[in-house]
Amino acid sequence: MSLQAPNGRLIVWLTLFVGLLMQIIPLPEIVEAWRPDWLLLVLIYWTMALPHRYNILTAWILGVALDVLLGSTLGVRALGFSLVIYVVALHFQRMRNFTIWQQSLLVACLVGVYHLVVFWLQYVLTKATYSHDIFWPMVSSLAIWPWVFWSLRRLRRGYKVR
Amino acid sequence: MKPIFVRGVSNQFRLTLAVIMSVMLIVANDRLTPVRQSMATLLSPLQYLASVPGDMLDNFAEAIATRNMLQRQNAEMLRQQLMMSERLQRFEHLRQENERLRLLLGSPVHMDARKMVAEVMEVASDPFHQQVVINRGLKNGVYVGQPVLDAQGVVGQVVDVSAITARVLLMSDTSHAIPVRITRNDVRMIVNGTGELDEVELRHVAKSIDVKVGDLLVTSGLGRRFPEGYPVARVTEVERDEAQAYARVMAQPLAALDRIRYLLLIWPSLDVTPADALAPGQVPAQTPDQTSAQTPADGAQTPAADQPVGTAAPQTGAQSATETGAQAAPQTQQQAQPNTQAQSQQQSQTQPQTQANSAAQNSTAASASNTAQPNPVPAEGNNTAAEERR
């Protein structure tokens, strides 16, 4: 699709792998509900940066992997990821031109949408009970996005990922 | 240079594809066990990797444990072990006695189940479900549906297995249920999870059922998944509201579900026949308060049900024990359904011979006749009829 030869695929998959790991690493009970959605943040970044290589289907595959790792119904997080990444893939050019804080706010909204989709599906499939906990990751993702963004941009430039 | 417009598959198409595939996965979820199993195997190293920090912390905590702490712990363990071994001595005597009695009756002897200790891995799980990951998998012979216990009681069952890890659904999850009976009077019930770690509920309990706060619930073995006799929960609340169709009964799991660390996987022995697993669940206790709980409907039905039982000769027990073993399983399932009364009456001629006394026969027949009730109340033995036959 892209006219350039791909480069640095390994780096991208490595960051996605780390994101996946961060999703299942144990956290103390108090901060457990605040766990940022690392994997989704990394996916959003790569979709913004290289929308023609990493997009909805990448997100879908990783969503299924996350479903398996977390032991939920297969396809729930895959669907949530796909929807969010679709929005990012549509508006990647606009998002690139946002300031970092505007980006953070948008990312927080996307994380919120993802959690709502996941909760809604879980509610329909099994009797998940609602709690406000599902919105805490929005706050933590908002706070953590600039750092994710900067470090991944550095990686991308350093390794000339295309 | 980067092209601004790149042709390729459109995002809409990709999204549609992803949504369709997700929906297919969600719908087919229950039939995808092998797929899930292989994917879990592929990803399980990740789980081990994720649990490394937690393990390191644990090791560190153990390394800095003081001599004093260890000594105290050791003393406590020794004390516990002494208490346990005393109980074990008594238990051994009872076990032998039980085995001898079972041999006399010609019923199969209980075998020891194979056991294995597993450790809970510290990895995050879906917040909407109550699950833990353990460090044993297909390689150790773990299978889906396997019962999992801890030192106090039932924890849950395995729902998902990979080569080296397995996922255990806790009994407090909303999607989990265990058939149980009350130890005091053998009333059968089903324990449902509520989503709270320290509370489970007993649904569809008729208000006339004899259940009290403090009753111990043990597995009844009727679900054919959990072997019978393991403690599950203790009743904490019984509320009989006239406005409600059923009594509200809550219980507290005996296993400390919020701080499980080591678990026990058991392989219920295969040579125990269904009758063996079921029979004790049907033996009613001859406690006085049980007969007092007898509902009028039971009383009216018992004489009719008693007729075929009276004709069955208790002495044939030893010969027909093997047959009984084969028949008892379907029969108890029928007891739980209405409209099978005639069938269960027929079978009740052969079935109760595994029981220890003739009073048991009566009550199983009564429970068979009892099937019209929505929640089959196990039968309260018709003691007078039993005495007549003696």
TrEMBL record, chain A:
TM region positions: 57-88, 100-122, 134-152
Cellular localization per UniProt: Cell inner membrane; Cell membrane
Bilayer disposition of the protein: Multi-pass membrane protein
One Pfam family, short name: MreD
InterPro entries with a match to the protein in the record: Cell_shape_determining_MreD, MreD_proteobac
Superkingdom of origin: Bacteria
Keywords recorded for this protein, A-Z: Cell inner membrane, Cell membrane, Cell shape, Membrane, Transmembrane, Transmembrane helix
Function, in words: Involved in formation of the rod shape of the cell. May also contribute to regulation of formation of penicillin-binding proteins.
Record-stated family: Belongs to the MreD family.
PANTHER family in the cross-refs: ROD SHAPE-DETERMINING PROTEIN MRED
The protein, known as: Rod shape-determining protein MreD
UniProtKB/TrEMBL annotation, chain B:
Name by which UniProt lists this protein: Cell shape-determining protein MreC
Keywords linked to the UniProt accession: Cell shape
Sequence segments annotated as region (Disordered): 278-390
Membership in a protein family: Belongs to the MreC family.
Residue ranges crossing the lipid bilayer per the database entry: none
Pfam families per UniProt: MreC (PF04085)
Biased composition (Polar residues): 284-295, 313-325, 381-390
Record bears the keyword Electron transport: no
Compositionally biased intervals (Low complexity): 326-374
Limits of the Rod shape-determining protein MreC beta-barrel core domain: 120-267
InterPro entries xref list: Cell/Rod_1 (IPR042177), Cell/Rod_MreC_2 (IPR042175), MreC (IPR007221), MreC_beta-barrel_core (IPR055342)
